[in-house]
Amino acid sequence: MKQGLKIVTIGGGSSYTPELIEGFIKRYEELPVSELWLVDIEAGKEKLEIVGNLAKRMVEKAGLPIEIHLSMDRREALKNADFVTTQFRVGLLDARAKDERIPLKYGVIGQETNGPGGLFKGLRTIPVILGICKDMEELCPDAWLVNFTNPAGMVTEAVLRYSNIKKVVGLCNVPIGMRMGMAKALGVEADRVQVNFAGLNHMVFGLDVMLDGVSVKQKVIDSMADPDNAMSMKNIAGLSWDPDFIKGLGVIPCGYHRYYYKTSEMLQEELDAANEKGTRAEVVKKLENELFELYKDPNLDIKPPQLEKRGGAYYSDAACSLINSIYNDKRDIQPVNTRNNGAIASIPDDSAVEVNCVITKEGPKPISVGDLPVAVRGLVQQIKSFERVAAEAAVTGDYQTALVAMTINPLVPSDTIAKQILDEMLEAHKEHLPQFFTEIHA
Ligand code: G6P
Q1: Looking at the whole model, is its pTM more than 0.90?
Q2: Which of 112, 125, 204 to mutate to test the pocket of ligand 1 (most atoms within 8 A of CB)?
Q3: Calpha distance 385→379 (Å, rounded)
């Protein structure tokens, strides 16, 4: 019987890693991690060392016997892992900045996980995650893959459909962020609030909200209608909702729904930001530099509060709670990305959805919601079609499939504009898209 757990984090040099370390430290008694392998590539070596050393100091301060290994050899690290977490960014923040800037030239939203940017992040990421899955099949076939790499919904979809890894869960901090925001609006502790989440990643709705088991959905909706309390994430401009719209909708949208329900205002906001302070990737680059400067301080041995300026703040709570509940068969309820299996009636059974699940040692068991309200169902289905076609394009490298994915995305207004954006982005990201540029010989 194994003594402790081996966790491998791919993209371990990420500025978010201290979140994860803090989460494992907090839960050590229940979740005895004995080895944590932080893995990165050559280009991330310096960051890996800086954040890895901070991780070592954090563990030492906590007085826990968690060994931290830093590695550039993914295959060596993966051997006999129990959990593999993924948090990498192919092409680093420069690629994200292109995803954000190029669409703007064509009057289209430029965003990390939505519209053309989300498509391209998927095209770059999916082949890499499928390579990791292949390695896992060989080196740690019993491990769970916990993916935070964006676009997390599309990536989970691709793993479910194009790999042999069945033990996969996609994770995001949006639901936990929404729950925290609602608790704040209600003026209560977050653990008294339970939300019935259903939809897709970055396209999730709160269908109902309970405070101590009693529905307070209307109260939450009323408070969101107040322009001073629009609820958003650090990375999404918190433009206020039209009060009649939000009350009429009757369910609670996530921050990312602004790109769909307030497209022109969000586009204007992005254009202004791009001209003034830079796109989000450009802002994040500066934040990252500041964070890594802090991480270098040999006296720092906790997660610095500045990390909370990032959109992914608190994601370790989602990640570590999930791993803890799988390991300890807790059977608690958490919103995660998993195979639908009929939980949402109008989404294919074999597709990834983000929905409340009972978390068991055999993984997440999705809780059926019946169907989504008709007013939001169509958009969710449309995004699911986009994700499926995009995943297919990422795997095949087929130009026409990529064009279809781009054109059916609701943020892209026409096939002609889709083609212009596609062509410019393919060229800009050529280095990270070999499947579109290499002749495949049978
Ligand atoms: C969120 C999302 C994450 C995303 C992050 C971006 O809240 O849920 O999927 O990666 O924000 O934050 P950043 O600080 O990098 O813009």
Answers
A1: yes
A2: 112
A3: 10
